Amino acid sequence: SELAENYDVAYINDVHSYDTDDDGEIDDLQMEVIKITTGKLKANYPYLIRAKNVDAKEMNLELTDATLRATKENTVTCTSVFMQFDVTGTYNIMSQEDYPEILAISTDGAWKKLAEDTALKPFRLYLTLTALDGSPVVVEEEALTRMRIVTRGEEGDVTGIEDAQFTIDNSEMKIYDLSGRRVKTPAKGGVYIINGKKVVF
């Protein structure tokens, strides 16, 4: 189909946080998305769509046997131990003046606040962040306003999972769980982050 030939479509799977410089503060946030390769898309659901070529940047789809549904905003929510991340699709123009706290996807693939005197166009996604009361986690402001989008399984992707069966001396190696917390004794069968890659023990 035209959609499969010209566009990658993905759904939001999770949000991961990392302390890459070991200073006790979260400095890297990644929103993990997974490509959809088969099946149908739901109406009024926030998907990420990426054009595979320049000509596909203007999307014009001809649909047959389509059932029209009333337009309504829908939100996907991911929650970590310290914050709630809500991604919503919009059918309206959202100006920076009226919505100064929302984040939108920038050209470099990160979520950023809208620049002054700009607006988010219709048929786009926006992200809102809500801190969870009582969390001891400290997050750097830059990480909150510049979250990267990572497609799971793409070549060179830090979220690619590698199967590994080995023993390690973890007294020198830094191992983190999927929430970005340092782990001294990894459990067998668990998934951990070592040197920026997910590893299954």
Question: Any key phrases for this structure?
Answer:
mainly beta, globular, 201 residues
Radius of gyration: 19 Å
Overall mean confidence score, pLDDT: 78
Determine the structural class based on helices, strands and strand pairing: mainly beta
DSSP summary, beta strand count: 16
Strand order across the biggest sheet?
3-1-2-11-8-7
Q: Let me know the largest β-sheet.
A: 6 strands, mixed
Specify the overall morphology: globular
Helix share, percent:
under 10%
Amino- and carboxy-terminal Cα gap: 40 Å
Helices and strands, in order, run as HEEEEEEEEEEHEEEEEE
Report the sheet-strand fraction: 35-45%
Can you summarize this structure?
The chain is mainly beta. It contains 2 helices and 16 strands.
In words, what does this structure look like?
- The chain is mainly beta.
- 4% of the residues lie in helices and 38% in strands.
- A hairpin with a 5-residue loop joins strand 13 (175-176) and strand 14 (182-183).
- The longest helix has 5 residues, at 2-6.
